Amino acid sequence: MLPTPSPDALAHSRHVSAHIAALIEAADGWIPFSRYMEAALYAPGLGYYAAGATKFGWAGDFTTAPEITPLFGRTLARAIVPALAATGGDILELGAGSGRLAADLLGELARLDALPARYAILEPSPDLAARQRMLLAEAHPHLLSRLCWLDTLPDTFNGVILGNEVLDALPVDVVRWTDTGALARGATYDNGRFVWQDRPLGNDVVRARAATLALAPGYVSEIGLAAEGLMHALAASLENGLILMLDYGFEAGVYYHPQRYMGTLRAHYRHHALDDPFYLPGLCDLTAHVDFSAIARAGTAAGLRLAGYASQAHFLIGSGLTELLTDISPEDTAAWLPQTNAVQRLVSPAEMGELFKVIALTKGAIPPLAGFARGDRQHRL
Q1: Contact by Cβ (8 Å): 363, 240
Q2: 53 falls in which pLDDT band (50, 70, 90)?
Q3: Could you give the angle at which helices 70-87 and 333-347 cross, rounded to 10 degrees?
Q4: pLDDT digits over 122-144, tens only?
Q5: Are strands 181-190 and 193-200 parallel, antiparallel or unpaired?
Q6: Any idea of the CA torsion for 135, 153, 269, 30, to the nearest 10 degrees?
Q7: What are the φ and ψ backbone dihedral angles of 279, each rounded to 5 degrees?
Q8: Whole-model pTM?
Q9: Could you give the count of Cα atoms lying within 13 Å of 67 in the half-sphere of its Cβ?
């Protein structure tokens, strides 16, 4: 049984639906799903990430790793110290969510005497940016001079670019393969509700990718051109440094496995995963798993070097997660037990440890990351 939204939330969803319906009407009654997803998530003042509802943690729709334990951010801080030292650069976090990861990273970097001169956050949501400012002002008031918020990528950047659960929230095209070729799945508006409708593929890049995949008739899946475009943009900005992305997904051979014939697209509402992406527009997060082979291909084509690809479990353990846990005394059960359970969630193959992956791409002379010393799966990409 799904939680019932408040009257205000339902009214907001109706506004979002009206906005998307107008887009469909202006486009002769149909838009590709990527356009629907972009509007549902990012329409100014309306989209899921552009409006003011709580999204992260137990009061929101999903829980990310930084919300589970500060050990996640502390471990990432230790992982990136060599790259920061090699570049003498800054940190740029993409889509900083609640700001919790930034707070934990900055705290650990301060303890390690490795703070960058600047910690920049690229945040498309004004509401989330305001929440990040509040949290960071409370957590590290003495570090506020190092913080800045950006609306666009900088023209040039040196240092470390971080993205935790960013790629999965970028719009995807949905494709259905048939006996006569691949079709674009999109949204139309019928009797007051959004429904799927398939049309010939109009995007040449999606059409070529679909032809290359050559999946069986009836197969439905996603092609994430926006995520690949982001990698090209990051490569163009980065002069010397490291791009580290963490997200849930697979390499292409697993992503497009015959058993995954219904794709990976999901809506998330109050910690429930739904197959219907048209449920309560504006109140649901929409995500698709990441094709890490495509991310690696886009990055290397743009001049980056693939520096590592591993499960989250391998990367975090290799970067010192368990050592940080041992700093907590087991005799202090009030502190030790919750953190032990949290670490289990991060690394267990049955939870986040295997589904989540970490990919690193570099430009310039960046030292190897300890998190990839064991369990690197570059050969699978």
Answers
A1: yes
A2: low
A3: 70
A4: 998 888 899 999 999 999 999 99
A5: antiparallel
A6: 150
A7: -75, 125
A8: 0.95
A9: 15
